[in-house]
Amino acid sequence: MAVRAGGGKVSRIDTLINAMTLPEKLGQLTMASGSYALTGPLHFADPSDAIRAGTLGNLLNVVGATEVHALQHIAIEESRLGVPLLIGFDVLHGHRTLFPVPLAETSLFDPAIWELTAREAAAEACADGISMAFAPMVDVARDPRWGRGIEGPGEDPWLAQRFSQAKVRGFQSGNLAAGTSVAAVAKHYCAYGPVMAGREYASVDISERTVHEVHLPPFATAVAAGVAAIMPAFHDLAGVPMTAHVALLRQWLRDHLGFDGVVVSDYNAIGGLILHGVAADLSEAAALALNAGVDIDMMAGAYLSGLPGALERGLVQLAQINTAVYRVLTLKERLGLFDDPYRRGATKEAAAMLGPRRALARSIGARAIVMLKNERAALPLAQSLRRVGLMGPLADAAEQMGGPWPAAGNTEAHVSVLAGLLSALPQTEVRHAAGVALGGDGAVDAQGALDLCAQVDVIVLCLGEAALMSGEAACRTHLGLPGRQREFAEAVLERAGALGKRVIVMLFSGRPLVVPWLVERADAVLACWFLGSEAGNAVADVLTGRVSPSGRTPVTWPRCEGQIPIFFGQRPSGRPANPADSFTSRYLEAPNEPLFAFGHGLTYGSFVFSNLRATPRCARREETIDVHVDVLNEGTLAAEETVFLFAHDRVASVARPLLELRGFAKIFLQPGEQGTVNLRLPAAELCFLGGDLTVVFEPGEVEILVGPCAERARLLHTSVQLL
Ligand code: BGC
Q1: Distance (Å, rounded) from C-alpha 4 to C-alpha 11?
Q2: Contact 370, 601 (CB under 8 A)
Q3: 230, containing H or E segment
Q4: What distance in Å separates the CA atoms of residue 19 and residue 9, rounded to the nearest whole number?
Q5: How far is the CA of 682 from the centre of ligand 1 (A)?
Q6: What is the dihedral of CA 695, 696, 697, 702, to 10 degrees?
Q7: Which of 374, 417, 382, 403 is nearest to 601 (CA)?
Q8: Active site residues
Q9: How far apart (Å, rounded) are the C-alpha atoms in residues 604 and 636?
Q10: In the prediction, which pLDDT does 353 show?
C-alpha cells in the first residue's frame, strides 16, 4: 500500500518512504556523532558503515566541507536509496568567528544585530557543510547558579521572544534552501531554567501558569517565525520528562501551535528516560518519545534498536514512524539537500568576509560590555597615561575569551585583553602580571603584581570565571570569584588605595557574579561576559573611550546567593517589604533589592528622562499606544542610551508582575543634545492569561513606566485606560 504520510499526490518523499525498509526508516530518525562526542557517550566510532547501510541519516559534530562531503558521498552514492545526510552542529554565537556569548549579545538590546550575527554564523557554518544549528537557546533563566543562562537571552520572557524571533530569521533567512541558510533548532523545550536548586539536569516543578506565561512564549515566537526544529530539554516537568511530554510536545506544540517541523531529542535524552524512571527498557523509552512526537533520536540509538521491539509489542504504530520520517525528509527537502547535497561547503567562505566579520565581532563585543560602575572619572582612560598595570588571571587568556561553547572557533585566534590594550595604546607602556591563578589554590607571582601598583598610573584587573565554569553541566553554589582571586583582588585594592591609584575591574563570567565587596571598592567595574574572537580589542575600545559602553544587563545581579531566584518580574506581595514592619516580605540580613537591576548599565554620557506621554490615553485591544519620552544627554561625552518600557496592571483578575517589559529602544546623543524616543505599544501586548490560562484583555487602568532599567524609583510613569 502506498503511504502518503503528508497527504495529497505521491511526492518524492512518499515514494522514498514506500521504498524504505524499517531499518532505513529508523536510520532517518537517528542522529549520531560523526567524529567526536562532547556531552555524552559516543556510538559509532566511524559512522561510514551505518550511512552506507542506510541506518544512519543524520549526523552531528562533523565540521568541514571535506569531512561532510566525504560522508555525504557515501550516503548519496553508496546507500541503497541515496538519501542525503542532515548535519547538525552547536552554532550558538558564531561558528569560526565567535561573537559575544548569547547572554552578552542580549546585552545589546538590538534585534537587528541578533539577526545579523545568526546570519553570519549560518554562512560560516554552511561553508563547513552544516545544515542545522542547534540554536537558538531561548530558555528563560532566573537562577544564576544554573550554568546554562549564558547560552540564552536572560531572565525575561518578552525579551526572549524578541531574541528568539531574530535568531530564527537570521539562521534561516526566509529561504532554507539557500546555500547560506541552516535549519534553526529552538531549545531546550521548555522550562529548563528553573531546574531544582539551580542544578543541571535536575527536576523542574513549577506552576502551569509559569510554564505558559514565562517559558513557552519564546518557543511560540520561534514557531511563528518558522523555526525548522525544536529540541526538548533533558529535565522532567513535575515527573514527566520533556522528551516524553505528550501534553507539551504533541498537544501544545503540534496541535495548538501547528508546528509541523522536526522535533530532535537532546543528546541521549531518549536513553535517559530509563534513568528518569518512566521506561523499563529502550523499546519503552523509544515508544514514549515517538508517541510524544520526537522525530529524531540524537545519540541514544533508541529508535534504531528499540522501535522494532516497540512495534512488535504494539507500543507504537508504523504510521507514527512514517510520519516522523516524512517530517525529517521534508526538512531535508526544504533545505535543498535532495537537489544538491553538496551545496553547503561547495564554495569556500570568501576570505574577504573574514575581516568584516572580525570587525563586526569587535564592534558587537564593545557594545555588549555592561559598565556596572564608573566613579572618580576612572573611565575612559586618560590620553596622558604613561603606564597601565594589567593584572589578573584573565588579562592574558585568549583561550578563555570564547566562552564555554567555542564551537568551531579557533581559540588561539582570539584576542586577549593584553593584546588588545597593547595595540590600542601604542604610546602607553602596558605592564602585565597575572598575580593569581584562575582557579584552585594557585598564586602566580602575587608580589610582582602588587609591586606593579606603585609603578603604574592606573590598574586594570581582569577577574572572573574560567570559560568552562558556565554552560552545560557547570552549575555553582557560590557565585563569587573562583580560587584565590578575591584574596588577590583585595590585596591589590588595598595597595592601590594606599597609593591613590584607580582600579578598574573587567569581570568575565557566564552569569552575574556575587561580588558586592568588589563593586564597592573598585573605581569601575565592567561586566565583559565572554566576548568571543575579538574580546581584547572590544575591551580596549571601551577602556580607551573609542566606544562608549552601552550594554545593559539582561539578568538581575544578586547581592548574595540567598536572594536567588531574583528577577524583576516578581508578583506583588500582600505584605510588601517595609523596613519598619517585621511581618513583611523581606530578609533579616539582606535587603530585597538586587545589587544591579535588570537593564542596568552606565555609559560615558549622563542621561535625564522627562516628559513621558502616552497617546491615546484610552485604547481598545486592536489599537496601538504611542509612548514618547524625552532624553537629554547632560554629560560631556556622546553616548547611546537604552530606554525601557514596562507595564503594570495594578488590578487584574490574576495578580500581574510588578513590572512587565513591553518595549525597548536606543538613542544616540551628543553632549547637551536632547531627543525623543517613541516606543509603540500594541494594546494587545497588555493581554495576559486569565484564571483558566486563556488569553484575556481586561478593561481598566494600566501603568506605563519608562526609564533606564527595572529599578522602579528611576522610572517615569503615566497610565492608559484599556477599553
Ligand atoms: C546539549 C544541547 C546540544 C547537544 C548537542 C547537549 O548535551 O544539551 O544543547 O545541542 O548536546 O551538542
Answers
A1: 8
A2: yes
A3: strand 229-232
A4: 16
A5: 36
A6: -90
A7: 374
A8: 266
A9: 8
A10: 76
Look at ligand 1, atom 8, and give the residue with the nearest C-alpha: 266
In this predicted model, what pLDDT tens digit does every residue of 633-642 receive, in sequence order? 999 999 999 9
Which whole-number Å values give the CA distances from 419 to 381, 430, 526, in the listed order?
Answer: 17, 10, 18
Please determine, for residue 10, whether its predicted confidence score (pLDDT) is greater than 90: no
Q: Is 461 exposed, middle or buried (0-12, 13-18, 19+ CB in 10 A)?
A: buried
If you write DSSP's letter for every residue of 138-205 in order, what string do you get? ------TTSGGGGGS--S-HHHHHHHHHHHHHHHHTT-TTSTT--EEEEEEES--TT-GGG-TT--B-
Q: For residues 56 and 23, give the distance between their C-alpha atoms in angstroms, rounded to a whole number.
A: 9
Q: pLDDT tens digit string along 555-604?
A: 999 999 999 999 999 999 999 999 899 999 999 999 999 999 999 999 99
Sort residue 85 into left (φ over 0), alpha (ψ -120 to 50) or beta. beta
Does the C-beta of 90 come closer than 6 Å to ligand 1?
Answer: yes
Residue pair 595/560 in contact (Cβ under 8 Å)? The answer is no
Identify each DSSP E strand in 318-465 by its residue range: 370-374, 387-391, 429-433, 458-464
418 CA to centre of ligand 1 in angstroms: 33
Q: For the chain, first and last CA: distance in Å?
A: 58
- Does residue 266 line the site of ligand 1, with CB under 6 A? yes
Out of 31-35, 116-120, 521-525, least confident range:
31-35
pLDDT at 708: 98
Q: Choose the residue to mutate in 33, 35, 36, 39 for probing ligand 1, maximizing ligand atoms within 8 Å of C-beta.
A: 39
Q: At 520, which helix (H) or strand (E)?
A: helix 516-521
Give 696's contacts (C-beta < 8 A, 6+ positions apart): 653, 687, 688, 689, 690
**Cis ω on the peptide bond leading into residue 600 (within 30° of 0)?**
no
pLDDT in tens, 37-47: 555 555 666 89
Q: What is the mean pLDDT of the chain?
A: 95
Distance from C-alpha of 31 to C-alpha of 37, rounded to nearest angstrom: 12
Residue 187 CA: nearest ligand 1 atom is 9
User: Is the bond preceding 699 in cis, omega lying within 30 degrees of 0?
Assistant: no
DSSP 256-277: IT---SEEB--TTTTTHHHHHT
Query: Counting runs of H as helices and runs of E as strands, what totals does the chain give?
Result: 19, 26
Most ligand 1 atoms within 8 A of CB, residue of 90, 138, 200, 270 to mutate: 90
Identify the residue whose C-alpha is closest to ligand 1 atom 12: 90
Domains of the chain: 16-23+89-328 (3.20.20.300), 366-563 (3.40.50.1700), 607-722 (2.60.40.10)
Q: What amino acid occupies position 208? A: E
Say which amino acid occupies 397.
A
The C-alpha cell at 195 is: 531546574
pLDDT at residue 1 in the model: 40
- Dist CA 364 CA 526 (whole Å): 15
- pLDDT, tens digit, for every residue of 262-284? 999 999 999 999 999 999 999 99
pLDDT at 134: 98
Residue 265's pLDDT is 98
Q: Which three cell numbers stand for residue 341?
A: 547535497
Residue type, 519: V
Does residue 488 line the site of ligand 1, with CB under 6 A?
no
Phi, psi (rounded to 5 degrees) for 461: -105, 120
The per-residue pLDDT for range 145-173, each reduced to its tens digit, is: 999 999 999 999 999 999 999 999 999 99
CB 482 within 8 A of CB 465: yes
pTM above 0.90, yes or no: yes
Q: For ligand 1, atom 2, which residue shows the shortest CA distance? A: 266
How do residues 323-369 score in pLDDT, each as one tens digit?
A: 999 999 999 999 999 999 999 999 877 666 778 999 999 999 999 99
